Amino acid sequence: MTEKPDFAKGNGLIPVIVQDVTSRRVLMLAYMNETAWTRTVETGLAHYWSRSRNALWLKGETSGHVQKVHAMYVDCDADTLLIVVEQSGAACHEGYASCFFRRFENGAFQVAEERVFDPKEVYKA
Fold it and tell me: Which residues bind Mg(2+) (predicted)?
């Protein structure tokens, strides 16, 4: 039995697929390091490693749109996670419920849903 994912396989980072507990819709893809994993297990709230900021990140720390973890699954190689969450607000920093809000149609990606919030209002700083 595995107690935690194998972070060594991904040079310290592993991909995390995040799914809504009710709709089962994929909300986002993020990355975790061992510290983010530990904080997530300890708090029950999703923590990730931000590659762009090079820092630990509690999902929703700025927006208030936190992810309460309901279940966590590891794949057969122990190097990818699937986390099932209760999402408050929206998962996407662009204001959409899911980061996968653009759909490929007629040769291009088109916005396929309405925004949940205005990012200019939420991320004023």
Answer: 75, 77, 79
Its pTM surpasses 0.70 = yes
Gap between the Cα atoms of 120 and 63, Å rounded: 11
Alpha-carbon span 36 to 56, nearest angstrom: 7
Q: Which residues are annotated as a binding site for Mg(2+)?
A: 75, 77, 79
In tens, the pLDDT along 67-89 reads 999 999 999 999 999 999 999 99
Please give the tally of structural domains in the chain: 1
List binding-site positions. Answer: 75-77, 79, 92, 99
Is 124 contained in some domain?
A: no
The distance in angstroms from the start CA to the end CA of the chain is 44
